[in-house]
Each structure stands twice: as C-alpha cells, then as structure tokens.
Design brief:
- One of its GO terms (molecular function) is peptidase activity.
- InterPro entries: DD-CPase-like, VanY-like_core_dom, Zn_M74/Hedgehog-like.
- Keywords: Membrane, Transmembrane, Transmembrane helix.
- By secondary structure, the chain is α+β, with helices and mostly antiparallel strands.
- It folds into 2 domains: 95 residues, Muramoyl-pentapeptide Carboxypeptidase, domain 2, CATH 3.30.1380.10; 37 residues, no CATH class.
- A 4-stranded antiparallel beta sheet has the order 5-6-8-7.
- Strand 3 and strand 4 form a beta hairpin.
- The longest helix has 24 residues.
- The chain is globular and about 45 Å long.
C-alpha cells in the first residue's frame, strides 16, 4: 500500500511540475493602465522573426542579428547589449530593421485582427511611418531586459516611445539628455 501511495504522489508531482512548465511556456503578459484598469499591452501579438536562435532568457522569442540597423545605430545597439551583459541582463533583439513591405504586411494583419485601420494604428504603424523601417528602432525581449533599458533613461540614446509597447525603443543621440514623453500608442 505504501508503494502505491508513493507512486501516486510522485505522479502527482510530475503532473503539477509539467503543468507549471506548460503554464510558463504559454504565459502571456498583459499590462494594465494603473488608473483605468484597461489593458495597455499584450505580448501575444509581439512581432519578431519566427526562426533563428532563441533568446536564452525567454525561449518564446528569437534573438535576431542586428543587421539592417543604421550605421550609426548598430554600434549603439552593441553598446547597450554589452552594458546589459555587465549588469547580468540578457537583452535579446526580438525585432529590428523591417522593410516597407514587412511593415505594410504587419499593418494589414493588424487591420484584419482589429477590424479597422484606426484600431490597427494603435499597435503598428503603416509602411513609411515606422522607425523600424529607418533602422533606428528595436523591440527588446524579455520584458525584464526592456525594463532595464528603460531605467537607463536615455543615457545610451535609447528611449521607450510608446506606453502600450514596453519592448519598443528608438535611438536618437539627443535622447542622452533625457527621454521625451511617451506617446500612448504608435
């Protein structure tokens, strides 16, 4: 009888552990406005490549190479990545440079998803309006790395620009004097 109880307990622990792992794997982060309680961001729709090396800090994301970033922006990205490492922060580039075609395809997908261009614009800009197309914007994952980068308050020239996208940062050397006020959305 004792052997049976032990087997049931071990099986129960395995099921609970496996369920916890699955729960973490499928975990979705939704941010909330501290005043209204309305959802402000949802990482289920975070854009980024589907293939490539995974982010070691959060395997839901790809850590893409920073190719396509503007020539003056690439070394600045390398600086923050190195500085993050010094601070024991794993900073992954989930999305960097996009072509106009990629940007428009993403916008069109969000129009289908949200039902109107007006709603889609709250989450993604149409082609010709995104800093990703210019090679000066990055989407950082995991959110703990994005939080670290935000706390640098522009001292490296990178600032978070949208309240509903805690992963989106844009580079401008003028930001070293301080980040501009965030916009509510794209």
């Amino acid at each position: 009888m004792r052997g049976w109880i032990k087997a049931v307990l071990v099986a129960g622990v395995v099921v609970v552990f496996a369920g916890s792992l699955f729960g973490l794997w499928s975990f979705k982060v939704i941010g909330y406005d501290t005043v209204s309680g309305q959802a402000t961001f949802d990482i289920r729709g975070v854009v980024g490549p589907d293939t490539g090396p995974t982010c070691p800090a959060d395997r839901r994301y790809v850590d893409e190479q920073p190719k396509g970033l503007r020539d003056d922006v690439l070394p600045e990205f390398e600086k923050i990545k190195a500085e993050a490492r010094k601070n024991n922060v794993t900073l992954c580039l989930n999305d960097g440079k996009r072509s106009s075609r990629q940007q428009q395809a993403q916008f069109d997908d969000y129009v289908r998803r949200y039902g109107s261009a007006e709603e889609a614009r709250k989450h993604v800009l149409p082609a010709g309006r995104s800093m990703h197309e210019l090679g000066t914007a990055i989407d950082v994952q995991p959110l703990s790395a994005a939080s670290w980068l935000e706390r640098t308050a522009g001292s490296y020239g990178w600032c978070r620009r949208y309240e509903n996208e805690p992963w989106h940062f844009e580079y401008d050397p003028n930001y070293r004097a301080g980040c501009p006020a965030m916009l509510p959305h794209a």
